[in-house]
Amino acid sequence: MTRPVPTLGNPKNTIEILNKYKFVFQKRYGQNFLIDEHVLGKIIRSAGITEEDFVVEIGPGIGTLTQYLAASARQVAAIEIDDALIPILEDTLSGYDNVMVIHDDVLKVDLAKLAEEENGGKPVKIVANLPYYITTPIIMGLFENHVPVESITVMVQKEVADRMKTGPGSKDYGALSLAVQYYARPELVANVPPNCFMPRPRVGSAVIRLQRHENPPVEVQDEKLMFQIIRASFNQRRKTLVNGLGNAPELRIPKEQTTAVLEEMGLNPGVRGEALDLQQFAELSNRLKKILE
Ligand code: SAM
Q1: Alpha-carbon 51 to chain mean position
Q2: Ligand 1 mean position to 60 CA, how many Å?
């Protein structure tokens, strides 16, 4: 099957399309379009897209990355919120018969249902240059709603990529690090400077690939409880873990119980949540679950 070669991905053609449609960038939608063919090629290669793949793209913009995905994948579903981009996408994707544009807010789309209907429930690949203002809810939503994903290859703020990869002892360590590492193996693909986008973002960006674990690296009896504990620990970062879990409205774990469990685990009862790694959060939640039952 031969599909058209992508035409977007360079400044000249991007400007031409933007002028043709008198497109006005919407800051509130985090619109920074890719204009670098080298970076686009790298995203496609690292995502390992093949003709078998069903790919979901979040925020296609004018269809730049979408053209590359459509040229390599079996089927692409691209979800775009901005009304003004829909006629542009019809134009730039007209040569491809394997792209479905969904005009909606990605946070309102049932992606598990989409994978069920369009891919027989088999795992999909997510590839995107994400709108930065909602990176965390998008990634957490994919994991927590149990969307069947094989991998997630996304452009994010450099600082967010760092947060996903890091462990205890770093100021970037937090709930996002733990959620990402529980569900997937993060791998930095490339750092991307602002001049690869139009308009240029104020911050550096990075492409990160999250390869879903077949089985989580730690054994957790109650995932929901573990993530409630993690959130409560990092919501009150400066507080001790004992106070954090005691104050969280959805937990309200008596201080004596957390203290006893921390001691059993050989940890100082004055420890802060930010000092615990994933294994320790798993053990803490398993032990607390037994007591709370
Ligand atoms: N993929 C394009 C590219 O690489 O050139 C555009 C990427 S741009 C960083 C983010 C895109 O996400 C924009 O097109 C924006 O309108 C869209 N977007 C923002 N919020 C969204 C949401 N809640 N649901 C779906 N798309 C959204």
Answers
A1: 23
A2: 6
